[in-house]
Amino acid sequence: MLPRACLLSHCHRAASCYIKPPSLLLLPSLWTPLRSIRSETSTQEHKDSSTNNRMPRNFKKGKGRKAGWDRRPKTDYKDVQKDNDRFETYYRVQKIVPDEEWSDFMTALRSPLPTTFRITGTRESAVEVRRQFEDHYFSHLNTVTFSNGESVEPPKPIRWYPERLAWHLQAPRQFIRKSKELKKFHTFLVQQNEQGNISRQEAVSMIPPFLLDVKPHHKVLDMCAAPGSKTAQLIEMIHAEGNSMPEGLVVANDADNKRCYMLVHQTKRLQSPCFMITNHDASIFPSLYTTAADGTKQRLYFDRVLADVPCSGDGTLRKNVTIWRSWNPMNAIGLHPLQSRILERGLQLLAVDGLIVYSTCSLNPIENEAVVAHMLRKHKGSVELVDVSSQLPRLRRSPGLKTWTIMDRSQNVYASPEDCKDNSKIHTTMFPPSKDELEWMRLERCCRLLPHHQDTGGFFVAVLRKTAPLSQRESKDIAQSAEAASTTTTTANASAADAGDADGDETVIRPSDPVQRSGQRLFNEDPYVFLVDEPEKKNILDGILDFYGFGPNFPKELMLTRSHGGKKRNVYIVSPLIKSIVANNIDDGLRVTNTGVRVFTRSDSKQEGLVFRMCQEGIDVTMPFMQKRVVHATAEDVLAILHEDTPFIDTLSSATEKAFNELSEGACAIVVEKGSPSVEKTEDGRGFRPLPCTVRMVGWRGRKTIRCLVGKHERLHYKLLVGAPPVLAEADGKKRYDNKGSSSSSSSSSSAKRAAEPEQQQQETGGDDGEEQPRKRARAGDDEGPSVWTTIKSWFGF
Ligand SMILES: C[S@@+](CC[C@H](N)C(=O)[O-])C[C@H]1O[C@@H](n2cnc3c(N)ncnc32)[C@H](O)[C@@H]1O
Questions:
Q1: Which of these, 233, 276, 677, 694, could form a disulfide with 209 (CB 3.0-4.6 Å)?
Q2: Mean pLDDT for the chain?
Q3: Which of these ranges, 76-85, 208-217, 230-239, 403-412, has the smallest mean pLDDT?
Q4: Is the pLDDT of residue 190 over 50?
């Protein structure tokens, strides 16, 4: 061990270590992630039926302000001295930045992080939302100059992100409050976040899903997924081809039960039947089984695995300024063993030829190259680093380090593995590879993202391919080392690891192992019951199948509820693969926090056949199978229904009116097909732009009216898709939009009256107010028409 005197600087300002002792790090229920956004405190839960889940009672849903856009950092930037001599000494020694770039690097770290966001949703819809934003909003924004001469450029697309679907605003949150124009933009961001059109995400955090190269048939595991920004990208990728039930799946896992509910919230708008949230320690994530076509039980291996592991997070210094105070090299040293075990488990769960992305928001080689090198060494011949230099070509990155220096809190240097005996926290696996090893490891294929290169946070990412099964010997080693870890720490971590897999080449960990059950008291989810397995509930199934005309192709065996017996309130649907996982693993203790999309919910109507109504979140899955109760409408009819809430049927276009008149009362699907005219005029003003994607929404046909059964945020989203540009509320709050996205000053009194009626009454009476005269609307551009349409026209400038 070398004394600290050999180093560049020797300031020893006390730094508070914010890593829990290793024994606690291993116990999921006690682990407070270093990179956590916010941990919920209450263990009380209530049911959120729309997401098939229980949510912690104090969980903040939906609101952009609460969901992160407007959350002020707990510590004000001004209060924190952005200096840490240990940090500078350490990273100068590591040479993560060339000397000539050092001052740029430090300047970037000391400046606040810009605002970045991603336009979310499946590709077709995201591209349309982006077009609307660009045409109607971004293009009108100007550079803002403050009184002190500083200026902020309008938002710009992130140059390396495909299809201009991610954006960058130079102004950090504090700046936004300084200008009226920026406040307005902030309001826009909050509103769009609420509507699910955008998601705030650090630019560098968007990289790992891209490098995973996910295809719709892939089985994907996100090992440490909460709060879920990368999970959302992964789900979008398996649905990229527009299929509502692709062959693949995404399993998003997190060890923290409460953070699993963040995942529920984050992925809510995507509503994928191929998605499951689990709650396990990733380093002992259970081996999963499915049923093969021949009926035999088989082990599930994932095609893609994301190991975005817990880390010391010093790449987030620009955002989490308190790290300036607490940073010290032991943070990384404490995390290296857990990170290695998570990566190793990921490799075990990966199919041969599959890819695993290992990423951290730490700059530290002990958490990065050392973990990767450890796995390459241990599984030589089975794992290789992938060259990703041709992917995301406009993304600037630094190659992985080939050597690094191990240092403790007092800046003593550990020069060789023999020095480990001086400090039990330093492991031999942390040391850089030998010359020979460097030849074949190709550590330069790792990527480090430096803050001053693209005005981002710091980040590390490496892509590994499994080229052959991990050998039997190595699997045993894993089990033994996991067992050793469990005995050297107070937790019984991974003691259940069992190297005796039938295949003989992978470690099997069962969800029912005693270790996995240790946190069970925190896990109390409702059961998953498939309707076809409950003969006494056959009437529910038959009623639904008959009312909506589901043909023989409809996969009724995939429908489930969340209770045994009793009155079922909601019916969900999952993909065949998810069903197979539920069926084969739940009884063995797999902790599924959430899965399935709600497709039907119990209606209050007493009328025969109306007991279960369709739900908007499941319409993309159910509608293609429906042979009854589908109405094809025009975009302007759909806009009127979304806006007016319960328009009279006779105010809609003649064809739509006819279609509704042929329908009995009850829930129905209203569809406008891709390619049909939207409500937005073409540039030459002669026609209407074609709809970029099919829009489907759930309505309720009353006696004389149509009621829109779409949530308030989704309404604004669908309005955008049918061609109505985004409407921005005033930042000063004077002009507010009501639940239906309509200006409170302009919503018609009849609609307000109807909206105030209870659903039951509206369903039974159709919500009609007794008007007898036909109320035909004029086509957009015509001068005559009822008041609602006139209002819509004036809003959108037709
Ligand atoms: C860096 S964050 C993940 C961020 C996430 N991938 C995203 O993009 O939103 C690390 C996460 O790992 C979780 N975590 C910590 N220890 C874990 C373990 N042993 N197994 C699984 N998850 C763990 C934390 O709860 C935290 O949510």
A1: 233
A2: 78
A3: 76-85
A4: yes
Contact 279, 260 (CB under 8 A): yes
Rounded Cα gap, residues 96 and 397, in angstroms: 12
Q: 600: part of which helix (H) or strand (E)?
A: strand 597-602
Give the pair of three-digit tokens for residue 445.
């294929």
Residue from 30, 256, 459 to probe ligand 1 pocket by mutation (most atoms less than 8 Å from CB): 256
> What's the whole-number mean pLDDT along residues 683-703?
92
* Residues whose CB falls within 8 Å of the CB of residue 606, separated by 6 or more in sequence, listed in order: none
Ligand 1 atom at shortest distance from the alpha carbon of 256: 25
What is the distance between the alpha carbons of residues 89 and 80, in angstroms, rounded to a whole number?
19
pLDDT per residue as tens digits for the range 306-346: 999 999 999 999 999 999 999 999 999 999 999 999 999 99
Residue 773 backbone dihedrals phi, psi, to 5 degrees? -70, 140
For position 455, what pLDDT does the model report?
A: 95
Question: What's the 257 CA to ligand 1 centre distance in angstroms?
Answer: 11
Q: Is it the case that residue 735 has pLDDT exceeding 60?
A: no
DSSP character for 648?
A: B
Question: Across residues 575-583, what is the average pLDDT?
Answer: 97
Exactly one of 260, 274, 311, 361 is catalytic; which is it? Answer: 361
Q: How many residues does the chain have?
A: 798
> For the residues of 311-353, what is the DSSP string, one character each?
---GGGTTT-TTHHHH--THHHHHHHHHHHHHHHHHHHHEEEE
Q: What integer is the mean pLDDT of 698-709?
A: 93
Q: Which residues are annotated binding-site positions?
A: 224-230, 254, 281, 308
C-alpha R_g of the chain: 28
The residue contributing the CA closest to ligand 1 atom 11 is 224
CA distances in angstroms from 470 to 278, 466, 529, 587, listed in the order given? 25, 8, 36, 28
What is the distance in A from the centroid of ligand 1 to the CA of 309?
6
**The predicted structure's pLDDT at residue 1:** 55
Atom nearest to 310 CA in ligand 1? 10
Strands (E), 673-763: 677-681, 688-690, 695-701, 706-708
Task: Give yes or no: 668 in active site.
Answer: no
Tens digits of residue pLDDT in 244-300: 999 999 999 999 999 999 999 888 888 899 999 999 999 999 999 999 989 999 999
Geometric angle at alpha carbon 713, from 226 and 260, rounded to 5°? 15
Token pair, residue 220, equals 């994907």
Of all residues in the chain, what percent are helix, strand and coil, respectively (each to 5)?
A: 40, 20, 45
Which residues contact ligand 1 via a Cβ below 6 A? 28, 31, 33, 35-36, 205, 224-230, 254-256, 259, 281-283, 308, 310
Question: What pLDDT is recorded for position 523?
Answer: 61
Ligand 1 centroid distance, CA of 749 (Å): 50
